[in-house]
User: Fold this.
Amino acid sequence: MLNHFKISIKKDLEQQLNTRFNQEISIIVEEPKKAELGDLSVPVFSIVKTLRKPLPQIVDIVKEELTKVGDAAYFNKIDSVSGFINITLNRTKFSELVINDFDNTDSYGQNEFGQGKTICIDYSSPNIAKPFSIGHLRSTIIGHSLGNILEKCGYNVVRINHLGDFGTPFAKTIYAYLNWGNQEIVEQDPVNELVKLYVEFNEKAKLDPNLDEEARKIFNELEQGNETYVKLWEYIREESLKDYMKVYDLLGVRFDSYNGEAFYNDKMQAIVDELKEKKLLIKDQGAMIVDLGDDIPPALIQKTDGATLYITRDLAALFYRKNTYHFDEVLYVVGNEQKLHFTQLKRVVDKMGYDFAENIHHINFGLVLQDGKKMSTRKGKIVKLEDVLNEASTMSLDYINEKNPGLENKEEIATHIGVSAVVFNDLKNYRTNDFEFNLEEMVNFAGQTGPYLQYTSVRIQSILDSALNTTNKMNYDLFEGEHYFDILKNISLYEDIIIKARLEYAPSILAKYLLNLASLFNSFYAKERVLVDDEVERNTKLHLLKMTKDILNDGMRLLGMQVILKM
Assistant:
Protein backbone atom coordinates (compact mmCIF):
# COMPACT_ATOMS: atom_id res chain seq x y z
CA MET A 1 0.00 0.00 0.00
CA LEU A 2 2.76 2.48 0.91
CA ASN A 3 4.38 1.71 -2.45
CA HIS A 4 1.18 2.79 -4.21
CA PHE A 5 1.52 6.16 -2.47
CA LYS A 6 5.13 6.43 -3.62
CA ILE A 7 4.21 5.69 -7.23
CA SER A 8 1.17 7.96 -7.22
CA ILE A 9 2.97 10.90 -5.63
CA LYS A 10 5.94 10.53 -7.97
CA LYS A 11 3.68 10.46 -11.03
CA ASP A 12 1.56 13.45 -9.97
CA LEU A 13 4.47 15.56 -8.76
CA GLU A 14 6.56 14.96 -11.89
CA GLN A 15 3.63 15.87 -14.11
CA GLN A 16 2.94 19.07 -12.16
CA LEU A 17 6.59 20.17 -12.13
CA ASN A 18 7.05 19.31 -15.81
CA THR A 19 4.01 21.43 -16.68
CA ARG A 20 5.10 24.29 -14.42
CA PHE A 21 8.66 24.52 -15.79
CA ASN A 22 8.18 22.97 -19.23
CA GLN A 23 11.10 20.69 -18.49
CA GLU A 24 11.56 16.95 -17.80
CA ILE A 25 12.03 16.56 -14.05
CA SER A 26 12.53 13.21 -12.35
CA ILE A 27 11.91 12.78 -8.64
CA ILE A 28 12.25 10.05 -6.05
CA VAL A 29 9.76 9.22 -3.31
CA GLU A 30 11.23 7.09 -0.52
CA GLU A 31 10.97 6.43 3.18
CA PRO A 32 12.99 8.59 5.58
CA LYS A 33 15.99 6.93 7.19
CA LYS A 34 14.60 7.89 10.59
CA ALA A 35 10.97 7.02 11.31
CA GLU A 36 10.48 10.12 13.47
CA LEU A 37 10.98 12.33 10.39
CA GLY A 38 7.79 11.07 8.72
CA ASP A 39 6.40 8.32 6.54
CA LEU A 40 7.52 9.44 3.08
CA SER A 41 10.32 11.64 1.82
CA VAL A 42 11.16 13.53 -1.39
CA PRO A 43 14.85 14.50 -1.82
CA VAL A 44 15.10 17.67 -3.91
CA PHE A 45 18.83 17.84 -4.75
CA SER A 46 18.33 16.52 -8.29
CA ILE A 47 15.54 19.07 -8.86
CA VAL A 48 17.85 21.88 -7.72
CA LYS A 49 20.47 20.66 -10.19
CA THR A 50 17.98 20.36 -13.05
CA LEU A 51 16.28 23.75 -12.54
CA ARG A 52 19.38 25.56 -11.31
CA LYS A 53 17.47 27.36 -8.60
CA PRO A 54 18.37 27.86 -4.92
CA LEU A 55 17.53 25.02 -2.54
CA PRO A 56 15.12 27.06 -0.34
CA GLN A 57 13.15 28.13 -3.42
CA ILE A 58 12.88 24.55 -4.72
CA VAL A 59 11.79 23.31 -1.28
CA ASP A 60 8.97 25.87 -1.21
CA ILE A 61 7.89 25.00 -4.76
CA VAL A 62 7.83 21.24 -4.13
CA LYS A 63 5.97 21.64 -0.85
CA GLU A 64 3.38 23.76 -2.64
CA GLU A 65 2.98 21.20 -5.44
CA LEU A 66 2.68 18.35 -2.96
CA THR A 67 -0.49 19.90 -1.59
CA LYS A 68 -2.06 19.41 -5.04
CA VAL A 69 -1.23 15.73 -5.66
CA GLY A 70 -4.05 13.21 -5.67
CA ASP A 71 -3.08 11.66 -2.33
CA ALA A 72 -2.75 15.00 -0.51
CA ALA A 73 -5.92 14.25 1.44
CA TYR A 74 -3.96 11.57 3.31
CA PHE A 75 -1.20 13.98 4.36
CA ASN A 76 -1.11 15.28 7.90
CA LYS A 77 2.05 17.34 7.68
CA ILE A 78 4.72 18.35 5.14
CA ASP A 79 8.12 19.37 6.57
CA SER A 80 11.58 19.97 5.13
CA VAL A 81 14.95 19.03 6.60
CA SER A 82 18.33 19.48 4.86
CA GLY A 83 17.09 19.08 1.30
CA PHE A 84 14.46 16.45 2.08
CA ILE A 85 10.73 17.10 2.11
CA ASN A 86 9.13 14.72 4.60
CA ILE A 87 5.48 13.75 4.57
CA THR A 88 3.65 12.53 7.65
CA LEU A 89 0.49 10.64 6.81
CA ASN A 90 -2.87 11.13 8.49
CA ARG A 91 -2.86 7.96 10.55
CA THR A 92 -6.61 7.66 10.88
CA LYS A 93 -7.30 8.00 7.16
CA PHE A 94 -4.35 5.86 6.13
CA SER A 95 -5.31 3.08 8.55
CA GLU A 96 -8.86 3.02 7.25
CA LEU A 97 -7.52 2.77 3.69
CA VAL A 98 -5.15 -0.09 4.52
CA ILE A 99 -7.74 -2.05 6.46
CA ASN A 100 -10.39 -1.68 3.76
CA ASP A 101 -7.87 -2.73 1.12
CA PHE A 102 -6.91 -5.75 3.20
CA ASP A 103 -10.52 -6.77 3.75
CA ASN A 104 -11.37 -6.46 0.05
CA THR A 105 -8.36 -8.43 -1.23
CA ASP A 106 -8.42 -12.21 -1.60
CA SER A 107 -4.66 -12.49 -1.14
CA TYR A 108 -3.00 -9.42 0.36
CA GLY A 109 0.35 -8.69 -1.24
CA GLN A 110 -0.60 -10.48 -4.46
CA ASN A 111 0.44 -8.37 -7.43
CA GLU A 112 0.65 -8.46 -11.22
CA PHE A 113 4.31 -7.48 -11.43
CA GLY A 114 5.06 -10.52 -13.59
CA GLN A 115 1.71 -10.99 -15.31
CA GLY A 116 2.06 -12.81 -18.63
CA LYS A 117 5.74 -13.66 -18.06
CA THR A 118 7.44 -17.00 -17.50
CA ILE A 119 10.51 -17.66 -15.39
CA CYS A 120 12.38 -20.97 -15.30
CA ILE A 121 14.21 -21.73 -12.04
CA ASP A 122 16.97 -24.34 -11.99
CA TYR A 123 17.53 -25.39 -8.37
CA SER A 124 18.39 -28.21 -5.95
CA SER A 125 20.07 -30.45 -8.58
CA PRO A 126 21.69 -33.12 -6.37
CA ASN A 127 24.12 -35.61 -7.89
CA ILE A 128 22.68 -39.10 -8.19
CA ALA A 129 24.47 -41.99 -6.48
CA LYS A 130 25.22 -39.68 -3.55
CA PRO A 131 23.11 -38.89 -0.47
CA PHE A 132 21.08 -35.68 -0.41
CA SER A 133 23.46 -33.75 1.78
CA ILE A 134 23.12 -30.55 3.71
CA GLY A 135 25.28 -29.02 0.98
CA HIS A 136 22.19 -29.05 -1.28
CA LEU A 137 20.00 -27.37 1.33
CA ARG A 138 20.58 -23.80 0.17
CA SER A 139 19.90 -24.29 -3.53
CA THR A 140 16.77 -26.29 -2.72
CA ILE A 141 15.07 -23.90 -0.33
CA ILE A 142 16.27 -20.64 -1.87
CA GLY A 143 14.98 -21.83 -5.25
CA HIS A 144 11.69 -23.07 -3.77
CA SER A 145 11.09 -19.81 -1.90
CA LEU A 146 11.94 -17.68 -4.95
CA GLY A 147 9.45 -19.74 -6.95
CA ASN A 148 6.74 -18.99 -4.38
CA ILE A 149 7.60 -15.27 -4.33
CA LEU A 150 7.57 -15.09 -8.13
CA GLU A 151 4.17 -16.79 -8.27
CA LYS A 152 2.90 -14.25 -5.73
CA CYS A 153 4.07 -11.60 -8.21
CA GLY A 154 1.99 -13.13 -11.01
CA TYR A 155 4.72 -15.02 -12.89
CA ASN A 156 4.27 -18.42 -14.46
CA VAL A 157 7.08 -20.36 -12.77
CA VAL A 158 8.67 -23.51 -14.19
CA ARG A 159 10.57 -25.34 -11.45
CA ILE A 160 13.40 -27.50 -12.76
CA ASN A 161 15.51 -30.05 -10.89
CA HIS A 162 18.53 -30.40 -13.18
CA LEU A 163 19.79 -33.66 -11.67
CA GLY A 164 23.50 -34.33 -11.77
CA ASP A 165 23.10 -37.67 -13.49
CA PHE A 166 25.98 -37.55 -15.96
CA GLY A 167 29.68 -36.80 -16.10
CA THR A 168 33.03 -38.30 -15.11
CA PRO A 169 32.23 -38.45 -11.34
CA PHE A 170 29.32 -40.74 -12.15
CA ALA A 171 31.61 -42.85 -14.34
CA LYS A 172 33.89 -43.31 -11.31
CA THR A 173 30.96 -44.80 -9.41
CA ILE A 174 30.23 -47.19 -12.30
CA TYR A 175 33.86 -48.29 -12.44
CA ALA A 176 33.97 -48.89 -8.68
CA TYR A 177 30.68 -50.82 -8.73
CA LEU A 178 31.75 -53.09 -11.59
CA ASN A 179 35.24 -53.76 -10.25
CA TRP A 180 34.85 -54.13 -6.49
CA GLY A 181 31.19 -53.55 -5.67
CA ASN A 182 28.80 -56.14 -4.23
CA GLN A 183 25.38 -56.15 -5.92
CA GLU A 184 23.50 -57.63 -2.95
CA ILE A 185 24.94 -55.10 -0.52
CA VAL A 186 24.26 -52.19 -2.88
CA GLU A 187 20.65 -53.25 -3.42
CA GLN A 188 20.02 -53.20 0.36
CA ASP A 189 21.00 -49.53 0.66
CA PRO A 190 21.76 -48.21 -2.86
CA VAL A 191 22.68 -44.56 -2.31
CA ASN A 192 24.79 -44.99 0.82
CA GLU A 193 26.66 -47.96 -0.60
CA LEU A 194 27.29 -46.22 -3.91
CA VAL A 195 28.79 -43.19 -2.21
CA LYS A 196 31.14 -45.50 -0.31
CA LEU A 197 32.30 -46.88 -3.64
CA TYR A 198 32.81 -43.34 -4.97
CA VAL A 199 34.92 -42.38 -1.97
CA GLU A 200 36.89 -45.62 -2.31
CA PHE A 201 37.56 -44.87 -5.97
CA ASN A 202 39.03 -41.47 -5.14
CA GLU A 203 41.27 -42.94 -2.45
CA LYS A 204 42.62 -45.60 -4.84
CA ALA A 205 43.03 -43.06 -7.65
CA LYS A 206 45.55 -41.20 -5.49
CA LEU A 207 47.80 -44.27 -5.77
CA ASP A 208 46.85 -45.22 -9.33
CA PRO A 209 46.20 -42.22 -11.61
CA ASN A 210 45.24 -44.61 -14.42
CA LEU A 211 41.88 -45.10 -12.68
CA ASP A 212 40.86 -41.56 -13.61
CA GLU A 213 41.57 -42.34 -17.25
CA GLU A 214 39.46 -45.50 -17.01
CA ALA A 215 36.59 -43.43 -15.62
CA ARG A 216 36.88 -40.97 -18.51
CA LYS A 217 36.65 -43.87 -20.97
CA ILE A 218 33.51 -45.16 -19.24
CA PHE A 219 31.91 -41.73 -19.41
CA ASN A 220 32.67 -41.45 -23.12
CA GLU A 221 31.12 -44.88 -23.76
CA LEU A 222 28.11 -43.97 -21.63
CA GLU A 223 27.54 -40.95 -23.85
CA GLN A 224 27.72 -43.27 -26.87
CA GLY A 225 24.99 -45.52 -25.41
CA ASN A 226 26.93 -48.50 -23.99
CA GLU A 227 24.11 -50.88 -22.97
CA THR A 228 25.72 -52.11 -19.72
CA TYR A 229 26.51 -48.61 -18.51
CA VAL A 230 23.12 -47.20 -19.52
CA LYS A 231 21.23 -49.97 -17.69
CA LEU A 232 23.27 -49.40 -14.54
CA TRP A 233 22.74 -45.64 -14.87
CA GLU A 234 18.94 -46.09 -15.06
CA TYR A 235 18.93 -48.23 -11.91
CA ILE A 236 21.05 -45.79 -9.91
CA ARG A 237 19.04 -42.77 -11.07
CA GLU A 238 15.75 -44.37 -10.05
CA GLU A 239 17.04 -45.42 -6.63
CA SER A 240 18.56 -41.99 -6.03
CA LEU A 241 15.28 -40.22 -6.85
CA LYS A 242 13.39 -42.47 -4.42
CA ASP A 243 15.83 -41.40 -1.71
CA TYR A 244 15.61 -37.70 -2.61
CA MET A 245 11.81 -37.68 -2.59
CA LYS A 246 11.87 -38.36 1.17
CA VAL A 247 13.67 -35.04 1.66
CA TYR A 248 11.50 -33.14 -0.84
CA ASP A 249 8.36 -34.42 0.90
CA LEU A 250 9.68 -33.25 4.28
CA LEU A 251 10.50 -29.82 2.85
CA GLY A 252 7.28 -29.54 0.83
CA VAL A 253 9.36 -28.86 -2.29
CA ARG A 254 8.03 -29.64 -5.76
CA PHE A 255 9.29 -29.56 -9.34
CA ASP A 256 7.80 -29.45 -12.82
CA SER A 257 10.78 -31.21 -14.39
CA TYR A 258 13.42 -33.69 -13.26
CA ASN A 259 15.28 -33.63 -16.57
CA GLY A 260 18.92 -33.91 -15.61
CA GLU A 261 22.16 -33.66 -17.54
CA ALA A 262 21.65 -37.02 -19.27
CA PHE A 263 18.39 -35.82 -20.84
CA TYR A 264 20.41 -33.46 -23.03
CA ASN A 265 22.89 -36.06 -24.27
CA ASP A 266 21.27 -36.18 -27.72
CA LYS A 267 20.72 -32.42 -27.85
CA MET A 268 24.32 -31.25 -27.57
CA GLN A 269 25.43 -31.95 -31.13
CA ALA A 270 23.02 -29.32 -32.42
CA ILE A 271 24.77 -26.76 -30.17
CA VAL A 272 28.20 -27.83 -31.40
CA ASP A 273 27.01 -27.65 -35.02
CA GLU A 274 25.59 -24.15 -34.53
CA LEU A 275 28.82 -22.96 -32.94
CA LYS A 276 30.73 -24.35 -35.92
CA GLU A 277 28.32 -22.77 -38.40
CA LYS A 278 28.73 -19.37 -36.73
CA LYS A 279 32.52 -19.85 -36.79
CA LEU A 280 32.76 -19.58 -33.02
CA LEU A 281 34.34 -22.98 -32.40
CA ILE A 282 38.14 -23.01 -32.35
CA LYS A 283 40.45 -26.02 -32.10
CA ASP A 284 42.96 -25.59 -29.30
CA GLN A 285 45.44 -28.38 -28.49
CA GLY A 286 42.96 -30.95 -29.76
CA ALA A 287 39.99 -29.57 -27.77
CA MET A 288 37.18 -27.36 -29.10
CA ILE A 289 36.72 -23.99 -27.42
CA VAL A 290 34.88 -20.68 -27.82
CA ASP A 291 37.07 -17.62 -27.33
CA LEU A 292 35.27 -15.23 -24.96
CA GLY A 293 37.78 -12.38 -24.94
CA ASP A 294 40.73 -11.44 -22.80
CA ASP A 295 38.81 -10.89 -19.55
CA ILE A 296 37.65 -14.49 -18.98
CA PRO A 297 38.98 -17.94 -19.96
CA PRO A 298 37.58 -19.58 -23.13
CA ALA A 299 34.61 -21.94 -22.87
CA LEU A 300 35.72 -25.57 -23.33
CA ILE A 301 32.97 -27.21 -25.41
CA GLN A 302 34.55 -30.59 -26.22
CA LYS A 303 37.56 -32.41 -24.78
CA THR A 304 40.26 -33.93 -26.98
CA ASP A 305 38.44 -37.30 -26.85
CA GLY A 306 35.20 -35.69 -28.03
CA ALA A 307 33.50 -35.85 -24.62
CA THR A 308 31.33 -32.89 -23.68
CA LEU A 309 31.49 -30.76 -20.57
CA TYR A 310 29.07 -29.06 -18.18
CA ILE A 311 28.82 -25.95 -20.32
CA THR A 312 27.92 -28.00 -23.42
CA ARG A 313 25.06 -29.66 -21.57
CA ASP A 314 23.99 -26.38 -19.95
CA LEU A 315 23.81 -24.77 -23.39
CA ALA A 316 21.68 -27.65 -24.65
CA ALA A 317 19.45 -27.37 -21.59
CA LEU A 318 19.13 -23.61 -21.95
CA PHE A 319 17.98 -23.74 -25.58
CA TYR A 320 15.63 -26.64 -24.84
CA ARG A 321 14.00 -24.59 -22.06
CA LYS A 322 13.77 -21.51 -24.25
CA ASN A 323 12.07 -23.48 -27.03
CA THR A 324 9.84 -25.47 -24.65
CA TYR A 325 8.82 -22.94 -22.00
CA HIS A 326 9.49 -19.65 -23.87
CA PHE A 327 10.89 -18.12 -20.70
CA ASP A 328 11.38 -14.41 -20.15
CA GLU A 329 14.06 -15.11 -17.56
CA VAL A 330 15.98 -18.18 -16.44
CA LEU A 331 17.46 -18.41 -12.94
CA TYR A 332 20.24 -20.74 -11.85
CA VAL A 333 20.28 -21.13 -8.07
CA VAL A 334 23.85 -22.35 -7.75
CA GLY A 335 26.73 -21.61 -5.35
CA ASN A 336 29.15 -18.68 -5.50
CA GLU A 337 31.94 -20.92 -6.80
CA GLN A 338 30.17 -21.32 -10.16
CA LYS A 339 30.32 -17.62 -11.02
CA LEU A 340 32.81 -18.10 -13.87
CA HIS A 341 30.77 -20.93 -15.40
CA PHE A 342 27.63 -18.82 -15.71
CA THR A 343 29.58 -15.80 -16.91
CA GLN A 344 30.92 -18.01 -19.70
CA LEU A 345 27.47 -19.42 -20.42
CA LYS A 346 25.98 -15.94 -20.88
CA ARG A 347 28.93 -14.82 -23.01
CA VAL A 348 28.62 -17.82 -25.35
CA VAL A 349 24.88 -17.21 -25.82
CA ASP A 350 25.57 -13.54 -26.51
CA LYS A 351 28.27 -14.38 -29.07
CA MET A 352 25.79 -16.75 -30.74
CA GLY A 353 23.61 -13.68 -31.34
CA TYR A 354 20.74 -14.33 -28.94
CA ASP A 355 19.41 -11.30 -27.06
CA PHE A 356 18.01 -13.37 -24.19
CA ALA A 357 21.57 -13.72 -22.82
CA GLU A 358 20.84 -10.70 -20.60
CA ASN A 359 17.94 -12.62 -19.02
CA ILE A 360 20.16 -15.44 -17.76
CA HIS A 361 20.78 -14.90 -14.05
CA HIS A 362 23.09 -16.75 -11.68
CA ILE A 363 21.41 -16.63 -8.26
CA ASN A 364 24.54 -17.34 -6.27
CA PHE A 365 24.76 -18.28 -2.62
CA GLY A 366 27.36 -19.00 0.06
CA LEU A 367 28.32 -22.22 1.79
CA VAL A 368 26.82 -24.15 4.67
CA LEU A 369 29.80 -24.70 6.95
CA GLN A 370 30.52 -27.40 9.49
CA ASP A 371 33.15 -26.40 12.03
CA GLY A 372 34.11 -23.60 9.66
CA LYS A 373 34.77 -25.89 6.71
CA LYS A 374 32.92 -26.85 3.54
CA MET A 375 31.55 -30.41 3.54
CA SER A 376 33.05 -32.76 0.96
CA THR A 377 31.60 -36.01 -0.38
CA ARG A 378 34.96 -36.79 -1.96
CA LYS A 379 36.60 -37.14 1.46
CA GLY A 380 33.68 -39.03 2.91
CA LYS A 381 32.59 -36.15 5.13
CA ILE A 382 28.88 -35.76 4.59
CA VAL A 383 25.85 -34.86 6.66
CA LYS A 384 22.59 -36.19 5.21
CA LEU A 385 19.88 -33.54 5.08
CA GLU A 386 17.19 -36.06 6.00
CA ASP A 387 19.05 -36.90 9.22
CA VAL A 388 19.37 -33.19 10.05
CA LEU A 389 15.67 -32.56 9.49
CA ASN A 390 14.75 -35.56 11.63
CA GLU A 391 17.06 -34.39 14.41
CA ALA A 392 15.53 -30.91 14.32
CA SER A 393 12.08 -32.49 14.57
CA THR A 394 13.18 -34.59 17.57
CA MET A 395 14.51 -31.48 19.32
CA SER A 396 11.18 -29.73 18.69
CA LEU A 397 9.30 -32.72 20.11
CA ASP A 398 11.41 -32.56 23.28
CA TYR A 399 10.38 -28.92 23.69
CA ILE A 400 6.69 -29.77 23.19
CA ASN A 401 6.89 -32.65 25.70
CA GLU A 402 8.31 -30.21 28.20
CA LYS A 403 5.87 -27.32 27.60
CA ASN A 404 2.68 -28.97 26.28
CA PRO A 405 2.87 -32.78 26.63
CA GLY A 406 -0.87 -33.25 26.02
CA LEU A 407 -0.80 -31.59 22.58
CA GLU A 408 -2.63 -33.62 19.93
CA ASN A 409 -0.62 -34.73 16.87
CA LYS A 410 2.54 -33.51 18.59
CA GLU A 411 4.87 -35.66 16.45
CA GLU A 412 3.49 -34.14 13.23
CA ILE A 413 3.62 -30.63 14.70
CA ALA A 414 7.19 -31.20 15.90
CA THR A 415 8.19 -32.17 12.36
CA HIS A 416 6.61 -28.98 10.98
CA ILE A 417 8.49 -26.91 13.57
CA GLY A 418 11.84 -28.65 13.13
CA VAL A 419 11.86 -28.58 9.34
CA SER A 420 10.67 -24.96 9.25
CA ALA A 421 13.40 -24.02 11.73
CA VAL A 422 16.07 -25.31 9.35
CA VAL A 423 14.42 -23.60 6.37
CA PHE A 424 14.05 -20.22 8.07
CA ASN A 425 17.55 -20.20 9.52
CA ASP A 426 18.94 -20.48 6.01
CA LEU A 427 16.63 -17.93 4.41
CA LYS A 428 17.09 -15.23 7.06
CA ASN A 429 20.73 -15.02 5.94
CA TYR A 430 21.46 -13.04 2.80
CA ARG A 431 22.03 -15.72 0.21
CA THR A 432 25.60 -14.79 -0.82
CA ASN A 433 26.90 -15.15 2.75
CA ASP A 434 28.33 -18.35 4.23
CA PHE A 435 26.82 -19.50 7.52
CA GLU A 436 27.65 -22.03 10.22
CA PHE A 437 25.10 -24.77 10.80
CA ASN A 438 23.96 -24.92 14.43
CA LEU A 439 20.78 -26.86 15.15
CA GLU A 440 20.43 -25.70 18.75
CA GLU A 441 20.30 -22.09 17.63
CA MET A 442 17.81 -22.88 14.84
CA VAL A 443 15.36 -24.84 16.99
CA ASN A 444 14.99 -22.08 19.54
CA PHE A 445 11.55 -20.74 20.37
CA ALA A 446 12.91 -17.28 21.20
CA GLY A 447 15.00 -14.93 19.11
CA GLN A 448 15.42 -14.63 15.36
CA THR A 449 14.12 -18.09 14.50
CA GLY A 450 11.41 -19.97 12.60
CA PRO A 451 9.80 -21.36 15.79
CA TYR A 452 9.52 -17.76 17.06
CA LEU A 453 7.46 -16.82 14.00
CA GLN A 454 5.31 -19.94 14.28
CA TYR A 455 4.77 -19.35 18.01
CA THR A 456 3.73 -15.73 17.37
CA SER A 457 1.16 -16.90 14.80
CA VAL A 458 -0.15 -19.56 17.20
CA ARG A 459 -0.34 -17.01 20.01
CA ILE A 460 -2.45 -14.67 17.89
CA GLN A 461 -4.70 -17.52 16.76
CA SER A 462 -5.27 -18.49 20.39
CA ILE A 463 -6.44 -14.94 21.18
CA LEU A 464 -8.74 -14.89 18.16
CA ASP A 465 -10.22 -18.27 19.10
CA SER A 466 -11.06 -17.09 22.61
CA ALA A 467 -12.56 -13.77 21.52
CA LEU A 468 -16.23 -12.90 21.48
CA ASN A 469 -16.79 -10.59 18.52
CA THR A 470 -20.14 -8.78 18.59
CA THR A 471 -19.60 -5.87 16.21
CA ASN A 472 -18.00 -5.02 12.89
CA LYS A 473 -17.35 -1.38 13.79
CA MET A 474 -13.82 0.01 13.93
CA ASN A 475 -12.24 2.86 15.87
CA TYR A 476 -9.62 4.15 13.44
CA ASP A 477 -8.58 6.87 15.89
CA LEU A 478 -6.77 4.16 17.87
CA PHE A 479 -4.15 4.11 15.12
CA GLU A 480 -2.96 7.51 16.25
CA GLY A 481 -1.15 5.43 18.89
CA GLU A 482 2.44 4.67 17.91
CA HIS A 483 2.33 0.93 18.64
CA TYR A 484 -0.94 0.54 16.70
CA PHE A 485 0.28 2.47 13.67
CA ASP A 486 3.68 0.74 13.60
CA ILE A 487 2.01 -2.63 13.02
CA LEU A 488 -0.42 -1.29 10.44
CA LYS A 489 2.25 0.58 8.53
CA ASN A 490 4.37 -2.58 8.51
CA ILE A 491 1.42 -4.56 7.13
CA SER A 492 0.96 -1.93 4.42
CA LEU A 493 4.54 -2.62 3.27
CA TYR A 494 3.94 -6.33 2.58
CA GLU A 495 3.46 -6.02 -1.19
CA ASP A 496 6.49 -3.73 -1.45
CA ILE A 497 8.60 -6.27 0.46
CA ILE A 498 7.54 -9.10 -1.84
CA ILE A 499 8.40 -7.06 -4.94
CA LYS A 500 11.76 -6.08 -3.44
CA ALA A 501 12.54 -9.72 -2.59
CA ARG A 502 11.71 -10.62 -6.19
CA LEU A 503 13.84 -7.86 -7.72
CA GLU A 504 16.85 -8.74 -5.56
CA TYR A 505 16.20 -12.51 -5.69
CA ALA A 506 16.52 -12.41 -1.90
CA PRO A 507 14.08 -14.30 0.37
CA SER A 508 16.03 -12.87 3.33
CA ILE A 509 14.24 -9.56 2.73
CA LEU A 510 10.90 -11.25 3.43
CA ALA A 511 12.32 -13.28 6.34
CA LYS A 512 13.61 -10.17 8.14
CA TYR A 513 10.35 -8.34 7.47
CA LEU A 514 8.40 -11.17 9.17
CA LEU A 515 10.71 -11.07 12.19
CA ASN A 516 10.09 -7.34 12.51
CA LEU A 517 6.32 -7.77 12.21
CA ALA A 518 6.33 -10.50 14.87
CA SER A 519 8.43 -8.27 17.14
CA LEU A 520 6.01 -5.36 16.68
CA PHE A 521 3.06 -7.58 17.61
CA ASN A 522 4.73 -8.95 20.73
CA SER A 523 5.61 -5.41 21.80
CA PHE A 524 2.00 -4.36 21.17
CA TYR A 525 0.66 -7.32 23.14
CA ALA A 526 2.89 -6.44 26.09
CA LYS A 527 1.33 -2.95 26.21
CA GLU A 528 -2.31 -3.61 25.33
CA ARG A 529 -5.05 -5.83 26.68
CA VAL A 530 -6.87 -7.10 23.61
CA LEU A 531 -10.07 -8.58 25.05
CA VAL A 532 -11.42 -5.37 26.56
CA ASP A 533 -15.07 -4.71 27.40
CA ASP A 534 -15.59 -1.97 24.81
CA GLU A 535 -16.86 -3.77 21.70
CA VAL A 536 -15.50 -1.36 19.11
CA GLU A 537 -12.05 -1.16 20.70
CA ARG A 538 -11.96 -4.96 21.05
CA ASN A 539 -12.95 -5.47 17.44
CA THR A 540 -10.34 -2.99 16.23
CA LYS A 541 -7.62 -4.80 18.13
CA LEU A 542 -8.80 -8.22 16.98
CA HIS A 543 -8.88 -7.02 13.40
CA LEU A 544 -5.31 -5.79 13.68
CA LEU A 545 -4.24 -9.11 15.17
CA LYS A 546 -5.94 -11.10 12.42
CA MET A 547 -4.24 -9.03 9.74
CA THR A 548 -0.88 -9.59 11.45
CA LYS A 549 -1.47 -13.34 11.66
CA ASP A 550 -2.55 -13.56 8.01
CA ILE A 551 0.59 -11.74 6.85
CA LEU A 552 2.84 -13.89 9.06
CA ASN A 553 1.22 -17.08 7.76
CA ASP A 554 1.35 -16.02 4.11
CA GLY A 555 4.96 -14.90 4.45
CA MET A 556 5.97 -18.17 6.11
CA ARG A 557 4.24 -20.08 3.33
CA LEU A 558 6.20 -18.12 0.72
CA LEU A 559 9.44 -19.01 2.51
CA GLY A 560 8.50 -22.69 2.44
CA MET A 561 7.68 -22.96 6.16
CA GLN A 562 4.75 -24.84 7.66
CA VAL A 563 1.97 -22.85 9.33
CA ILE A 564 0.64 -24.54 12.47
CA LEU A 565 -2.37 -23.81 14.66
CA LYS A 566 -1.17 -25.09 18.03
CA MET A 567 2.17 -25.80 19.66
In short: The longest strand covers residues 75-81.
